[in-house]
Amino acid sequence: MRIAVTSQNFRTITGHAGKTRRFLILEADGRSEPIEIDRLDLQPNMSMHDYQGNDHPLFDLGLDVIITQSAGRGFTERMAQRGIQVHTTSLTDPRDAATTLAAGRPLPTAPAHTHAHEPVQLNVQNN
């Protein structure tokens, strides 16, 4: 299984997959420790949020899965069109997450994804 993990620092799983520009690329078989086979370090204009072309470098890696801490619906749908599953998790260690997923076990749930530019509804009570 070929897995990309969103990792802005190349050490931990980070969130907001659509704006991520750095990915660890791992091979995992569910039996042994995942192996890092590549790193993707994209230019600022190449995040999936900013780049709308069909020739994005993520599409050329033969990915089965992307693991992230958060992803919006647009990102998830765009990956699904390419046959790439997106899994969100609260885990921070890329190898632990890849090991868990490749072994067929569910990842711990991540907090819900929200966009900073979406309005937040507040409940205010007047006394």
UniProtKB/TrEMBL annotation:
Region (Disordered): 108-127
Segments forming domain Dinitrogenase iron-molybdenum cofactor biosynthesis: 12-101
Coiled coil: none
Alphabetized UniProt keyword annotations: Nitrogen fixation
SUPFAM superfamilies, alphabetized: Nitrogenase accessory factor-like
InterPro entries for this protein: Di-Nase_FeMo-co_biosynth, DiNase_FeMo-co_biosyn_sf
Protein name: Nitrogen fixation-like protein
